[in-house]
Amino acid sequence: MAKEKIENRVFENETGVQGQYKNWFLDYASYVILERAVPAVEDGLKPVQRRILHAMKEMDDGRFNKVANIIGQAMQYHPHGDASIGDALVNLGQKDLLIDTQGNWGDVRTGDSAAAPRYIEARLSKFALEVAFNAKTTNWQLSYDGRKQEPVTLPMKFPLLLAQGVEGIAVGLSTKIMPHNFCEIIDAAIKYLKDKPFELYPDFQTGGMVDVSNYQGGKRGGKVKVRCIIEELDKKSLIIRDVPFGVTVSQLCDSITKANEQGKIKIKKLTEFTGKNVEVQVDLAPGISSDITIDALYAFTDCEVSISPNACIIEGQKPRFVEVQELLRVSVDKTKALLNRELEIKLGELNDKWHYTSLEKIFFEEKIYKELEQRHETWEKVIEAIELAFVPFQPMLRRLVTREDVLKLTEKPVRRIYKLDIEDLNNQIRGIEAEIAQVKHDLAHLTDFAIAYFENLLKKYGKGRERKTEIKLFDTISVQQVAIANTKLYVNRAEGFIGTSLKKEEYLFDCSDIDDIIIFTKRGTMKVVKVGDKVFVGKDIIHIAIFKKNDERTTYNMIYLDGQSGTSYAKRFNVSGITRDKEYDLTKGSDKSKVHYFTTNPNGEAEVVKISLSPNATARTKEFDYHFEELEIKGRSSQGNTVTKYPVRAVKFKEAGRSTLAGRKLWFDDQFGRLNIDEKGMYLGSFEGDDKLVVMYTDGQYEITDTELTQRFDSDKIILIERFEARRIFTAVYLDNAKQQYNVKRFKIETTTLKTKYLFIKEGEGNMLETVTSIDEPVLVVKAGTGIHATKSKFKIADMVEMMGWRAIGAKLMNYSKTVEMEWEQAPKDENPQPELF
After folding, report:
1. Among 671, 714, 680, which Cα is nearest to 211's?
2. Tens-place pLDDT, residues 63-91
């Protein structure tokens, strides 16, 4: 009994205030999701957008209308007032697809808002009129106040949702569909109709670059990275000519200014010249390279942003999460169904037209109209007589003659009878029959008809809608490598603290606030910590430096005393990876162990030290030299080799040694335009500390540069990259555009300035480097012509052309031809092969 009372009380609660709140919230959430925030899959529009387009169609007379008038017209259908309508209308207009605009409509790049609705005008675009409206295929419903009819959805014959994109936040639900390229959407639709695979990737009005490697079809969990394009204006400044999607110019500038104030980047000046086009100039700080600044801009500012798509649509009055490929398939299928419906309606109309035209022909040709001249008792008798007169001709028709047909014929003016041309009616019937045959053919081959429909859309509206955002795979930028030293680090060695706030203590060096710091102590322990205000790292510090993860070249040479056995050991080791804040013991573990000698060597140098033993030691030799180069480089946990079992009084540096490491092996990754040590891309060789690279570009310039990994190269413009040797002779073939000929030259590089480009071909518009090599005895293979007319020639360039200066114009090789292909004959493999060309 008690249980029943409790259950009844709970039920009363649910149907009382609590239940009402629950129902109200569900109703509100459903309303926001279905009626405001999330688009319908049928036409890709939110309700407010659909109502605006419907209102504009009602007003359409081919001329522009004031936006204020359009808003007023749309308010008959939309219950949320002029502000929401105006914002949605401006948003549609800025997407430049469904609406032609006139006046100041703002700019999504700068964030400038549109002018007041009374000052700007709009009308439906020809594209919108063609794809979005057909009263015969539209389903209608009453407007919110019951006074008007509005479309449930527009009969959209195009994947509009993918072209425009959409963003909306509802109650407990959101949607974010990226805009895609107009032409690529149509190409994908045609491929789908042809049962071929297709791919779709975002394209933004703001331009820039996008990395779609993790797009995942636009579904939840995916991500795209968007970057603006940063160009090197000159050695002292950079220029930005676009903004990432969703970022305005002012937001971009604010993020750069903030990063500079925080010390994450270091720039001299930021100037915005944006007018019709985006233009932001970044002047570099003295001593800061443009490559590092570009990386830092991407790492610390809104020059690069990540966007998480979330494709959610309304289908069957329910929200559903989909991929963009599925969205395209659904949209194309609906377009195909609409085209089928339009053809069926057209076929019905043509059949009706054929029937009435045939009736009209029989009515006049067989003089049935004379029944109108007979003296029948009533008008009804006249109609019956005409109906009876059509009975013999019924087999010639495709459906029964109705009373409505007869009444329509009797409404013809008398003068029409006298001017009638039966042959003209026959021609009309033949024309209608041809149209009917074509429509039936289209219905029977609906897929081909849909393909032709999309091809026609592309032909009519595709011009000027080419992709604006470059699809590119982005390299991962290490923020530690590009972070500017924006703070000073201090140390209290006695108490074992380091930090940026210990300004009364010993100054160490400048570092970034995101750096890791490695510390070694006299006890023989090591720890890596993050930069902080004040961090305890251990007493008796002997070495502190910025830690470089995965650094396999920096080598630590150490001699330590094992406190338990009294034996001294020597070891050499690298520290490439660690757990932050964990203390590592580099000795055998005794608390009495201590370090006699410690050095850090960036390239594995192995010095010679002088070891002095205690005067009380029983050893015969109390001083001797120890050579670190005799030790192998092992892991940090290794014990090391025995130096002496006797007590050590001192270990002193005696003589610098050479590096015991092989040269650093470098590769060039032409996908990202980066040097690397990770074996990605083309192998360049093993490089010592002072070795340089030479890079040659398609525009006929070369530059000598160092092997710093933070450099950025435009790999699309590189023809050759290899180790620089001053004695090496280069052979180059380039196009002299003015004379329409190919010139050839052989030269040595005589300049020594690093990271400065020099033009080594003839200056002139259209001149470009065709090919270049450093092979000692170059043989150029030239293929000219196509098909059976193709010819192949070989030129031994060294026998044809003498060595000349790098500024020389060169000698004529041959006349220019569009069908010419050039390549260097591969030299026999030897112990020192030449680097590859690409």
Report:
1. 671
2. 999 999 999 999 998 888 888 899 999 99
- The single-letter code of the amino acid at 50 is R
Joined together, the tokens standing for residue 36 give 């405001």
Contact 215, 310 (CB under 8 A): no
Query: Which is it for the CA torsion 680, 681, 686, 692, positive or negative?
Result: negative
pLDDT averaged per 10 residues, the chain (length 838): 44 55 52 58 86 93 93 88 89 92 90 90 94 91 87 91 78 77 95 93 92 88 91 89 92 92 87 88 88 90 91 72 87 94 92 85 74 71 78 81 79 57 82 91 94 94 92 83 83 90 91 90 94 91 90 92 94 91 93 95 92 91 93 92 94 90 89 88 89 95 92 90 94 94 94 92 94 93 84 90 92 90 74 41
Give the HSE-up count for residue 217: Cα atoms under 13 Å, Cβ half-sphere: 12
| Phi, psi torsion values for 96, nearest 5 degrees | 55, 50
**Dihedral angle at the C-alpha atoms of 494, 499, 502, 505, nearest 10 degrees?**
40
Query: Exposed, middle or buried by CB within 10 Å (0-12, 13-18, 19+), for 772?
Result: buried
Indicate the helix (H) or strand (E) that contains 695.
strand 693-697
Cβ-Cβ contacts under 8 Å for 307 (sequence gap 6 or more):
176, 178, 223, 224, 225, 226, 245, 246
Query: So what's the pLDDT on residue 422?
Result: 76
Q: Give SS3 for 25.
A: helix
Rounded Cα distance, 565 and 343, in Å: 98
Which pLDDT does position 830 carry in this prediction?
Answer: 47
DSSP assignment of 209-248 equals EEE-TT-GGG-TT--EEEE--EEEEETTEEEE----TT--
In one-letter notation, the amino acid at residue 428 is Q
pLDDT of residue 141: 87
pLDDT of residue 30: 53
**How does 188-210 read in b/e, with b if 16+ C-beta sit within 10 Å?**
bbbbbbeeeebebbbbbbbbbbb
> Which CATH code fits 327-461?
1.10.268
Give the residue numbers marked as catalytic: 119
207: DSSP letter: -
Beta bridge pairs of residue 729? 748
Q: Using alpha carbons, list the distances in angstroms from residue 639 to 463, 585, 588, 613.
A: 72, 11, 6, 21
- Residues 549-596 have pLDDT tens digits of 888 889 999 999 999 999 999 999 999 888 899 999 999 989 999 999
Residue appearing with tokens 């007003």: 59
Beta bridge pairs of residue 517 = 529, 546
Structure tokens at 759: 């033009």
Secondary structure of residue 457 in the 3-state scheme: helix
The CATH number of 29-193, from 3.30.300.110, 3.40.50.300, 3.30.830.10, 3.90.199.10, is 3.90.199.10
Q: How far is Cα 18 from Cα 41, in angstroms, rounded to an integer? A: 35
CA 720 to the chain's CA centroid = 28
pLDDT of residue 27: 53
Helix, strand, or coil (residue 814) = strand
- Which residues, other chains included, contact 512 with Cβ-Cβ below 8 Å and sequence gap of 6+? 263, 264, 480, 483, 484, 485, 486, 487, 531
Q: Does domain 224-307 bear CATH number 3.30.1360.40?
A: yes
CATH for 664-824, options being 3.40.50.300, 3.10.20.30, 2.120.10.90, 2.30.42.10: 2.120.10.90
Which CA distances in Å does 397 have to 404, 426, 437? 16, 14, 17
CA distance 573 to 638: 8
Of the candidates 592, 603, 605, 594, the one whose C-alpha atom is nearest the C-alpha of residue 651 is 594
**What is the pLDDT, as a whole number, of residue 831?**
44
